[in-house]
Amino acid sequence: MQFAYPQAWWLLPVVVVAAWWWFRRRRAAVCYSDVRLFGGLSGRRARFSRWGGLLGRLVVGSLLVFACAGPRIPDERTRLPAEGIAIMMVLDISGSMNEPVRWWGDAPEISRLEAARRAFLLFVFGGTTPEGEEFPGRPSDAIGLVTFAAVPRTVCPLTFNHASVLRQQVERLEPKAGIDAGTNVGDALAEGLIRLQAAPHLRKVLILLSDGEHTHITEDNLRPRQAAQLAANLGIPVYALDPAGELPADSPPEMQRNRQIGRQTLQDIAAMTGGQYLPASDGTALREAFRQLDRLERAPATTYLYRRYFEYYPHAIATALVGLLLLRWLETTWWRTLP
């Protein structure tokens, strides 16, 4: 048996002290001129009343503390085999992700964000690509999603419930604009690293999909290389997917310089953390990048996680209430004392 809140056991001394105070408290007395009429009584019922009341209060209080500790047993029949991977997807949804790209062949162009969405869903759920290749999916992995523009946001913490939780959040994604515009790569990486700490028993991987141009710069936020150093210290590889591609040759020099800075930032992040930089400028390149990730990050070790627990605190509370009612009934009938 496990306890969700084992610190609740520290309340047990309070129960003992309270029960002992009740037992030792000064009791009321009745003044009577002559007690010889009671000389033949054994006093057994009075002793039962005192010691039984003490024991009953100790049992009821201990049951309540037991319930507060959250007793539970894992349901081993529904355990879920996991291949040792916790994956956090950190996805750029800034205005630059609204740029058009081609998903496949002569199909109409879609936004970078839509291409990233389709490729990520293939990676998680599996399926057939337009080229006819199969993605096996990642049903055994804990996968989460952090999105970012100017500010990072955890859209979905690590979960095994991909179909009803993760998919819904991915399908709702839209590019940010207005006051939310900007690209804050450093803080987004830090947010992803924090969320990965929820799975201490699994190998951790972070996938960063961004053009790498860190445009939201303030005194408080982390720079991308600072966040990459944190990932390196934690032993978490970052796979950097670059959807930006090459700019036209006649682009302004400033745009060319920013594009080069963004690419170099992503390459540095991957190199510092032991990950890999993967160009993904269109649908075909995105699918190939996720296919490489799928091959690289499959751990041979197997662990077991439990999908749910049998909770026993309601039983403990119900037993305590029954005991309390029984104790009250005894003290008003068989164990009743006057005054």
TrEMBL record:
<keyword id="KW-0812">Transmembrane</keyword>
<keyword id="KW-1003">Cell membrane</keyword>
<dbReference type="Pfam" id="PF07584">
    <property type="entry name" value="BatA"/>
</dbReference>
<feature type="transmembrane region" description="Helical">
    <location>
        <begin position="6"/>
        <end position="23"/>
    </location>
</feature>
<protein>
    <submittedName>
        <fullName>VWA domain-containing protein</fullName>
    </submittedName>
</protein>
<dbReference type="InterPro" id="IPR050768">
    <property type="entry name" value="UPF0353/GerABKA_families"/>
</dbReference>
<dbReference type="InterPro" id="IPR002035">
    <property type="entry name" value="VWF_A"/>
</dbReference>
<keyword id="KW-1133">Transmembrane helix</keyword>
<dbReference type="Pfam" id="PF13519">
    <property type="entry name" value="VWA_2"/>
</dbReference>
<feature type="transmembrane region" description="Helical">
    <location>
        <begin position="54"/>
        <end position="73"/>
    </location>
</feature>
<dbReference type="InterPro" id="IPR024163">
    <property type="entry name" value="Aerotolerance_reg_N"/>
</dbReference>
<keyword id="KW-0472">Membrane</keyword>
<dbReference type="InterPro" id="IPR036465">
    <property type="entry name" value="vWFA_dom_sf"/>
</dbReference>
<feature type="domain" description="VWFA">
    <location>
        <begin position="86"/>
        <end position="293"/>
    </location>
</feature>
